[in-house]
Amino acid sequence: MRLLIVEDEKRLATTLAKGLAAEGFAVDVAHDGREGLHLATTQGYDLLILDIMLPGMNGYRLCGTLRAAGDETPILMLTAKDGEYDEAEGLDTGADDYLTKPFSYVVLLARVRALLRRRTRGGSPVLRLGDLTLDPNGRCCAAPHREVGRRARGPRRRR
């Protein structure tokens, strides 16, 4: 699953990207709204994590632009703006979820998984090419009569 983090706080963006990559996600990062819009419209992500207060184009506008173009990629807004009107604006603009900073990484990860589950309910996430099958959720690949290339992961660390 591919995720895009659009966050101008570089340290936070790097920490999130490393944590999500350790969970098996492919993660790209943009540090301003315009770059985020470009990546979101050209790269095909499974989920976007957007800050609101971004240089170039704010998160509300970025989200609204994507929704106006028919993009239905799940969007989680992650922001320091914790007022009820801010949250309502984010959701009304088209975000699927809204989480305020400071936040729990465990809760963020659970929300990411929940948004991805909702997205994949309608169709099978399993990809097939000839006799080869790839299940991104199960993180396995199978060829006729055998499972291919699943690496064991070490114990999970609590964050």
Task: Describe the protein.
Helices cover 37% and strands 23% of the residues. By secondary structure, the protein is α/β, with parallel strands linked by helices. The protein folds into two domains: 2-123, 3-Layer(aba) Sandwich (Rossmann fold); 125-159, no CATH class. α3 (59-68) links the parallel β3 and β4. α2 packs parallel to α3 (59-68). It starts with a strand and ends in an 11-residue tail after the last strand. The mean pLDDT is 87. This is Response regulator receiver domain-containing protein. Keywords: DNA-binding, Phosphoprotein, Transcription, Transcription regulation, Two-component regulatory system. GO terms for molecular function: phosphorelay response regulator activity; transcription cis-regulatory region binding.
